Amino acid sequence: MADLWNAIWMGIIEGLTEFLPVSSTGHLILLGELLHFTGDRAKTFEVVVQFGAVLAVLVLYRRRFASLLNFNFKQTSRLNALHVLLAMVPAGIMGVGLHGVIKHYLFSPATVLIGLLAGGVLMIGADRAGRKVTAEGLDDITYRQAFVIGFFQVLALWPGFSRSGSTISGGMLLGTSQKAAAEFTFIVSVPMMAGASGIDLLKSREFLTAADAPLFLIGLLAAFIVGTLACVTFINMMKKLRLSWFAYYRFGLAIIFAFIVL
């Protein structure tokens, strides 16, 4: 019964934090330490619940994903699959090449706290840079901006840095609006998370058992429901809140967990 409650709590946290620039992976690692839900089984569970967040984005942006297939190799007036592919390349190559190193050395409370602090500094820098906005909406993002944003996404390979935090910061530094950067992050996160989670599941398949199916399904469902609500809420928040506010939250979280976990 305790494991089922752990699944619900971790599914809720994944859904709440996946689309916020506060690091969902970092939150899951830290929460797992507090709940004493750690080890290979817990790591596999963390991978599974991420699919719930992926499904949430697919449902909410289903029309946008359907339109991505309409593209050519010249600059177009609409976001398309080539933008997404260009943004995936840097992190995809680095993620596959360093997968073992990242999993072995970086998935710990201490590295998460470092990522929370470093990511917060980047977000404040992007927020205060005052760059001229050249891409107000998703369809204004250029191929060049998409590709360079992909390099910022590499930072998210460090747990605690946050995929959305690094890509939104990168987008703003390159001239996209805060809202456009956030929505582009959602779109790119689906193939990135699906690919990374798929690789993790293949490598963790020995830890998957039929007995754990209810645990994993409950966590996935919780992440999907909460993630759907959180995704819509976050986009509305991006119209009103500065990115720095999320950075301050990260600093506070890092300080609290430094005392509790370390």
Number of helices: 12
Shape summary: globular
Order of helices and strands: HHHHHHHHHHHH
Structural class: mainly alpha
**Major beta sheet, specifics?**
none
Low-confidence stretches: none
Helix content: over 70%
On the 0-100 scale, what is the average pLDDT?
A: 85
Number of strands: 0
Count of the separate structural domains: 1
Radius of gyration: 18 Å
Strand content: under 5%
Termini Cα gap: 28 Å
GO cellular component, one term: plasma membrane
EC number: 3.6.1.27
Catalytic activity: di-trans,octa-cis-undecaprenyl diphosphate + H2O = di-trans,octa-cis-undecaprenyl phosphate + phosphate + H(+)
Main location: membrane
Describe this structure in words.
By secondary structure, this protein is mainly alpha-helical. It has one domain (2-64, 87-260). Helices cover 73% and strands 0% of the residues. The chain has twelve helices and no strands. It has helices at residues 2-17, 24-35, 40-60, 62-67, 81-97, 99-105, 109-128, 143-153, 163-173, 178-203, 213-237, 243-260. Helix 1 runs parallel beside helix 11 and helix 7 (109-128) runs parallel beside helix 9 (163-173). The longest helix has 26 residues, at 178-203. The protein is globular and about 50 Å long.
Summarize the model shown.
This protein has 262 residues and is mainly alpha-helical. It has one domain.
Key traits:
single chain; 262 residues; mainly alpha; 12 helices; cell membrane; cell shape; EC 3.6.1.27; membrane; UppP
SSE layout and pairings?
Elements: H1 2-17, H2 24-35, H3 40-60, H4 62-67, H5 81-97, H6 99-105, H7 109-128, H8 143-153, H9 163-173, H10 178-203, H11 213-237, H12 243-260
Helix pairs in contact: 1-2, 1-3, 1-11, 2-7, 3-10, 3-11, 5-8, 5-10, 7-9, 7-12, 8-9, 9-10
